[in-house]
Structures are given as C-alpha cells and as structure tokens.
Amino acid sequence: MHSILTESFGLQFRPSFLRDGQFYLAIAIAPLPLIALSYLAPGWNTGMHAGTATIFSLVIWQPLVEELLFRGFIQGRFEQWRRAREKFLFFSLANYCTTLLFVAAHLFNQSAWWAAAVAVPSLLFGYFRDRHENIYPSIVLHASYNACYLAFGTLQKNAMPIGG
User: Fold this and answer.
1) What's the pTM value of the predicted model, to 2 decimals?
2) DSSP code per residue over the chain
3) What distance in Å separates the CA atoms of residue 130 and residue 17, rounded to the nearest whole number?
4) Domain range spanning residue 103?
5) Is residue 2 in some structural domain?
6) Does 94 map to a domain?
7) Within a domain: 126
8) pLDDT, tens digit (0-9, with 9 covering 90-100), for 112-144
9) Which UniProt keywords apply (predicted)?
C-alpha cells in the first residue's frame, strides 16, 4: 500500500532531473515573462513586499503544498487512466487537465489574467512530473519561479529611476 501511494503521488525520489539540461533551461527562462510583464503592464508589482512570511509562503509553503496536491495527487490520479498519459504537443492529457484545475484554483485570489498566467508554468511543472515520474522537479521549479517572481517584483519596485 505504501509503495502504491508513493508511486501514484510521485513521491519516490529519482534524482535524474538534476542531470537534465531541460530542467535547468526551465529555471533559466523564469525571468523572461516577468521582463515582458514589466513592459506590458508597468506597476504590476505595486504593493509587493518581501517580508519573511511572504518569502516562506511563496518559496516554500505554496510550492510544496500546491505540487503535492496538483502534480502529486491530481495529476497522479489522472495518470492512472491510460488515455490521460497520451501526449499532445509535448504534454500529457493528465497535465492539461491538472493545469486547468491549477488555473481555476488561482481564480480564488487572483484576477483572471493572473490566473491564466500560471498556465504555462503549470504545464512545465507537469511536464517534468511526467518526464521524471516524481514531483520533486516540479517542487523545485515552482519554488524557483515564485522566488524569481518575488525577487524581480520587489527589486524592480525598489529600483531607482534612471536619471533620478
């Protein structure tokens, strides 16, 4: 019973993702949407601060809980259906379904635009869950993306304007 739950939740640790160039590329591209956002929606980070509770929540708590629930439990449940493991445009049907639920969950405390913005990172997190058959790369990626979001948002907000 223990190994069935461990496997279906993706909790068996397989360090293969630590040797995966795609994994490191996924981390490296995290700032790109934030750079684009700064030009498309100046002021997106108004009211953002990096207190201890915020850092803990965004970089540790939320990635751990959300990945256990979405990539561990939900995507793991979907993957029990053979059809859900089939790929379409690089991603499994289980990943697409999980991403829809992930986006919907973000509608509770974010605008529709912000909730939709988590779709691409969610697909990446699910991709690495599928690729390495565990949730640890998803947790690390989620924490990295949230840390980048927090750091970029607070650093940009506090930056001095040029010439001022």
Assistant:
1) 0.88
2) -HHHHHHHTT-S--GGGGG-HHHHHHHHTTHHHHHHHHHHSTTTTTT----HHHHHIIIIIHHHHHIIIIIIIIHHHHTTSGGGG-EETTEEHHHHHHHHHHHHHHTTTS-HHHHHHTHHHHHHHHHHHHHHTSSHHHHHHHHHHHHHHHHHHHHHHHPPPTT-
3) 11
4) 49-156
5) no
6) yes
7) yes
8) 888 888 999 999 999 999 999 999 999 999 999
9) Hydrolase, Membrane, Protease, Transmembrane, Transmembrane helix
Q: What average pLDDT score do residues 23-49 get?
A: 82
Domains identified in the chain, total number:
1
Residue with tokens 């956002």: 37
Select from 57, 79, 86 the least CA-distant residue to 9.
Answer: 79
Q: Residue 18 and residue 27: Cα distance in Å, rounded?
A: 12
If we measure between CA atoms, which residue out of 133, 124, 132 comes closest to residue 99?
124
Q: How confident is the model at residue 163 (pLDDT cuts 50, 70, 90)?
A: very low
Structure tokens belonging to residue 59: 């970089």
Other CB atoms within 10 Å distance of the CB of residue 144 = 17
Residue 8 lies in a domain: no
Average pLDDT, the chain: 87
pLDDT above 90: residue 107: yes
